[in-house]
Design goal:
Layout (H helix, E strand, L loop, with lengths): L13 H10 L15 E6 L8 H6 L4 E9 L7 E2 L3 H10 L3 E8 L4 H15 L8 E4 L10 H17 L4 E6 H6 L3 H6 L4 E4 L16 E8 L11 E6 L33 H4 L1 E2 L2 E2 L12 E5 L5 E7 L2 E4 L37 H4 L6 E5 L3 E8 L2 E8 H16 L4 E3 L2 E3 L11 H12 L9 H10 L3 H6 L2 E3 L1 H5 L10 H9 L4 E3 L8 H19 L4 E4 L1 E3 L2 E2 H6 L7 H7 L2 H16 L5 E2 L23 H16 L7 E5 L16 E2 L3 H6 L1 H10 L4 E4 L3 E2 L12 H11 L5 E4 L5 H4 L4 H11 L4 E2 L4 H14 L4 H17 L5
Parallel strand pairs: 1-2, 2-4, 4-5, 5-6, 6-7, 7-8, 20-21, 20-31, 21-22, 22-25, 26-28, 27-29, 28-30
Antiparallel strand pairs: 1-9, 2-3, 8-9, 10-11, 12-13, 13-14, 15-16, 16-17, 18-19, 23-24
Helix pairs in contact: 4-5, 12-27, 15-16, 19-20, 20-22, 25-26
Length: about 800
């Protein structure tokens, strides 16, 4: 940077010195990307008066973020920036890249929504190289609280993206820390623009979390001569060689084409694979080894796909059937150990299956039988990494499931889904059609499963939604301490008043085959007749010493799971899963809280021979086999437990007040997480989270009350899209530290979909109901959980 030199009196106070130096701070003279790999820009509004755009461009400025409008909290009325149209045209004339922002100080959702709609109207009919930002940081909004402001922001961002733009958020550090959930915004992929004035962009590096940094509000145009005010200075951490230049409307995504992170394996494939909107590209040459193909999927329906030609960037599509197999060329050299290798630029970053498919990966360069090698961009260049082929393919499947809200499975390197176009084949064209229809708000046909779920959810009352979050004992439902062995008028009245998501039965409830069948059948009938949705009917049937049905009704008994893990026979374990499912389904059970996916690390753990093995790879294989077996018939859901793992415990969550497990996050990733991945990939409908406190979570909370464990690790890092259920809230680690209402609300807020066995159902329901009704917890968060519950219920025929 260049600073004007001044001769200052030695006695000039520090108070005066700093403002004077800043006042003459000049714009950085830089190339498109400076030696630090950064793009330089400014943000401009009518406040800046008449701007000398030639001077800006001549001083190495690469981009400008223009103010489109504002809604000050004290005015409660939207104003379009008077200079926006002029500034846009002048910036374009001198070749600057352009983004836009709107400062929204609305303190009610009605005004916030109105302002965003007017903002979209202001900026329409123009193209933008940078995101369309929302600026949310007014003092008057702080009273709304973090959760409400985060929800306002997310809903506003969704409106912007629905209008066809990539949306982002601008705020200062205080706001990103205290008033909006930065981590959640980051997890959802929104670019974040940080305001924090140090006036020296080399003084800090915020690239770990932020897309851009506004580092000074005291920039001056030296020699401007027009009396312009100080101008805000920004740096962008994105390399322009792979920065997006345009977005593609979902309506232009042709049926049968599902844009994803996919990459050419040879020059010969290009002409056949790529289309530029409407016109096929002929003779286009892409050199896979030297040029990047970049694309992303956004679940709100906007997709982008870029590749580089000699003429610049172009937009295209790639058929989904090129995704796997032939898209990854055979390895030309042996790769010996998966994991991160020395990089082109940085070291210390890691690749994980849950985030791979959401990265701008530029190149999948080689593959042997087990390993894929990737090249992906970082803020200062490109990085090389390896990951197992199974994890790479899994990340595709999980991304598809996230986009489609459908279960997608991989068999013999083919992707399968439902037949949407009624041609008798479920193939690539159905995936494209399903994604396009679902994300645009349409449905493939009136009877589609997702439509049924959406319609049911739309007609539920708030009370019905909240009750769906609970699986309880029949005693808790009926309000009695005596063992319940039949579903009678008391049960019928209770289900009418409290339409819970499910009932779990224990040995005390199971007396004979006919008694159990009648009890469960009546409960299902009462539930469907009263509110139109059936119940999860759950039981603990692991085999070995935890087998409620086998021990009371005489179905097949099995050895402890450790016995089968030692033999390593996955086919036998799958067969056991099929038999257990048949045994319990005949009585009406549709959820089995099995298998145990913990790893036997500490010999003093409370699970013992219920665990398959001390080898995470064996546990992963065995649990995957058991999940496949249990769910094969389509009558019973499996449940992986007890995430993130009880095997390293030296205590007992049933009895101890606190059960602390001291493990590093790296240790969890290498052991416990790997054990759960097999069952997750097999499609387990449920994952149960235990009560153990994980030291590396850093929150001193039981895991099923921890946002870090359930949302950051299980939901985001392992990309689990099914139902997260807590362990029993009647166990001492919960009851000794929390009231029933406190525990239920905390678990739900942290990411649980189902609360198992609240000690006081009424108190648990009331706390969550009040939190949602007041806006403390957004109803959209509740809808997410209920939607996951209803999808599984629809799968098993429980929706009327």
């Amino acid at each position: 940077m260049i600073l004007k030199k001044r001769i200052l009196p030695l006695l000039l106070s520090l108070v005066l010195l700093l403002p004077l130096c800043i006042a003459d701070w000049q714009l950085v003279k830089a190339k498109a990307v400076d030696k630090n790999g950064l793009m330089h820009g400014v943000d401009v509004s009518a406040y800046n008066g008449v701007v000398d755009w030639q001077l800006l461009a001549g001083n190495g400025i690469d981009f400008v973020i223009l103010r489109g409008g504002k809604l000050p909290s004290e005015k409660d009325e939207y104003f379009e920036d008077d200079q926006f149209d002029i500034n846009y045209e002048e910036a374009r004339k001198v070749g600057l890249k352009v983004g836009v922002y709107m400062r929204c100080g609305a303190t009610s959702w009605e005004k916030f929504e109105e302002a965003v709609n007017l903002y979209i109207e202001t900026i329409k009919d123009k193209e933008y190289d940078f995101p369309v930002f929302l600026d949310v940081e007014e003092d008057a909004q702080q009273k709304l609280g973090k959760e409400v402001m985060t929800q306002y922001t997310l809903d506003g961002l969704a409106m912007i993206e629905e209008a066809g733009y990539k949306a982002g958020v601008y705020a200062n550090l205080n706001w990103f820390t205290n008033y909006i959930d930065r981590d959640l915004l980051e997890e959802k992929g929104y670019p974040l623009w940080l305001a924090r004035y140090t006036h020296d962009y080399t003084s800090n590096d915020f690239s770990d979390h932020y897309f851009m940094w506004q580092y000074s509000n005291k920039g001056q145009l030296a020699g401007n001569g027009k009396g312009a005010t100080a101008i805000d200075l920004d740096i962008c951490y994105v390399d322009p060689n792979y920065a997006p230049e345009r977005f593609m409307e979902k309506d232009n995504c042709l049926d049968g084409y599902l844009p994803l992170h996919v990459f050419p394996s040879s020059d010969e494939e290009q002409t056949a694979c790529y289309m530029d909107c409407k016109t096929p590209i002929s003779g286009a040459t892409i050199t896979p080894t030297t040029e990047c193909v970049i694309q992303e999927v956004y679940t709100n329906g906007w997709c982008r796909f870029f590749y580089i030609t000699s003429e610049g960037r172009r937009v295209g599509y790639l058929p989904l059937n090129k995704l796997l197999g032939e898209m990854l060329p055979d390895a030309t050299e042996e790769i010996t150990s998966p994991g991160i290798v020395p990089t082109y630029t940085r070291s210390g970053m890691t690749l994980r299956a849950g985030s791979l498919a959401r990265r701008d990966v530029c190149r999948v360069t080689k593959r042997n039988e087990n390993v894929v090698q990737l090249v992906y961009p970082v803020s200062d260049g490109f990085k090389l990494g390896w990951v197992s082929k199974d994890e790479w393919e899994l990340s595709y499947l999980l991304l598809l499931q996230d986009a489609l809200h459908k279960r997608v499975t991989l068999t013999e390197n083919e992707l399968y889904c439902v037949d949407c176009n009624n041609d008798g084949i479920a193939d690539v064209f159905d995936l494209g059609l399903m994604r396009r229809n679902l994300l645009s708000g349409a449905v493939a046909n009136p009877d589609s499963k997702e439509s049924k779920v959406a319609n049911y959810l739309a007609n539920m009352t708030l009370q019905e939604k909240v009750y769906q979050l609970f699986i309880v004992t029949p005693e808790s439902l009926n309000g009695t301490t005596s063992a319940v062995t039949k579903s009678d008028a008391t049960t019928q009245a209770a289900l009418q008043e409290k339409p819970v998501g499910g009932i779990i039965y224990f040995a005390q409830n199971l007396k004979s085959e006919s008694q159990v069948k009648g009890m469960i059948n009546n409960a299902q009938t009462y539930a469907k007749d009263s509110h139109g949705t059936g119940l999860f009917i759950a039981v603990d049937e692991e085999g070995g010493r935890v087998a409620r049905v086998a021990s009371t009704l005489g179905t097949t008994a099995y050895d402890p799971m450790a016995t089968y893990g030692a033999k390593g026979d996955t086919a036998a374990v799958q067969a056991i899963g099929e038999d257990i499912a048949a045994d319990i389904a005949q009585f009406g059970f549709n959820v089995d809280f099995a298998p145990v996916a913990d790893v036997d690390i500490d010999p003093n753990n409370e699970l013992g021979d219920r665990i398959f093995s001390d080898d995470p790879a064996v546990v992963s294989q065995m649990t995957a086999a058991m999940v496949t077996g249990l769910q094969k018939s389509g009558q019973v859901s499996a449940t992986l437990k007890h995430f993130p793992g009880l095997g390293a415990e030296n205590g007992n969550t049933h009895n101890d007040k606190v059960c602390l497990i001291t493990r590093s996050l790296d240790e969890l990733r290498e052991t416990e997480f790997k054990a759960f991945q097999g069952g997750i990939r097999a499609g387990s409908d449920f994952v149960m989270v235990g009560h153990q406190t994980m030291s590396c979570a850093g929150d001193d909370l039981p895991s099923d009350l921890s946002y870090t464990v359930m949302t950051k690790w299980l939901r985001n890092e392992l990309a689990y899209n099914g139902i997260i259920v807590t362990d029993s809230h009647t166990m001492n680690t919960i009851t000794a530290n929390y009231s029933a209402g406190e525990a239920a609300k905390a678990s739900f807020a942290a990411g649980a979909d189902v609360i198992l066995l609240p000690k006081d159902l009424d108190a648990a329901f009331t706390e969550i109901y009040k939190a949602v009704r007041s806006g403390e917890i957004p109803e959209s968060r509740l809808n997410d959980s209920v939607r996951r519950i209803l999808r599984v219920k629809e799968k098993y025929g429980l929706l009327e």
